[in-house]
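Action item from last meeting closed. Structure (248 res):
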């Protein structure tokens, strides 16, 4: 059977799911024994449609948790919170429990890498609040040679651009237009930073990658999606070096 990719698989799973809640776990990771009990109990106590957990790189044991004495925090203004927190796992999809009604009809962008961040960004725009628990329950496999660690290519630049424009279009609606500046600066800006950094390090093996990136950077500037003042100084310096590499 042909491998249709991770977004397709996730979309298919959402389509056929019939429970009240959904947890998304990557195939090479695992969760602690009481994880779903803890997240479900927290969702019911807080009336939150999304509950996030901490991640760990090695689960330390199977000690039982007291479900009657759970610790949790409710974060209001959900989108702003995940955009401003420095904890990377606050904005990934795989360490959370979701109420099915919230995500049942939402779809990942098929056929691209990096499908997580556009989905999460748009989802959290629709949330007033979400909850988190301070327990390291999700065991992330650091040995996996994931997309983030693999060779950066023209296709991956295109996939970033697809996600960026999908988010821009979502936040161009009247309901979310006021949120666009912070989304552009924080989440879209981070994707642009990733493209620049990865191209800077990879183009030694792919000389035409520099020019390909610059074409898309110019397009993002013309459309008002990229503002140079929102990028860190070191990223701008790398972009300048990429520009001069193309001129030599």
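Sequence:
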């Amino acid at each position: 059977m042909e491998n249709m990719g991770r977004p397709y698989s996730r979309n298919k799973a959402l389509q056929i799911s019939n429970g009240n809640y959904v947890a998304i776990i990557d195939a090479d990771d695992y969760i602690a024994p009481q994880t779903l009990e803890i997240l479900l109990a927290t969702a019911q106590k807080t009336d939150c449609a999304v509950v996030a957990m901490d991640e760990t790189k090695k689960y330390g044991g199977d000690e039982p948790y007291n479900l009657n004495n759970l610790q949790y925090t409710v974060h209001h203004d959900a989108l702003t919170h995940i955009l401003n927190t420095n904890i990377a796992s606050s904005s990934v999809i795989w360490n959370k429990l979701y109420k099915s009604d919230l995500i049942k009809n939402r779809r990942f962008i098929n056929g691209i890498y990096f499908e997580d961040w556009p989905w999460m960004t748009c989802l959290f725009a629709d949330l007033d609040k979400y909850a988190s628990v301070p327990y390291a329950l999700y065991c992330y496999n650091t040995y996996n040679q994931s997309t983030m660690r693999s060779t950066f290519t023209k296709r991956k630049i295109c996939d970033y651009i697809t996600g960026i424009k999908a988010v821009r279009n979502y936040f161009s609606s009247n309901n979310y237009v006021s949120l666009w500046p912070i989304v552009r600066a924080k989440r879209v800006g981070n994707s642009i930073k990733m493209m620049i950094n990865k191209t800077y390090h990879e183009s030694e093996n792919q000389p035409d990658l520099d020019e390909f990136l610059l074409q898309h950077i110019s397009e993002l500037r013309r459309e008002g999606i990229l503002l140079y003042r929102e990028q860190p100084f070191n990223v701008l310096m790398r972009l300048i070096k990429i520009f001069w590499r193309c001129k030599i």
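Note appended to the action item: The longest strand covers residues 129-139.
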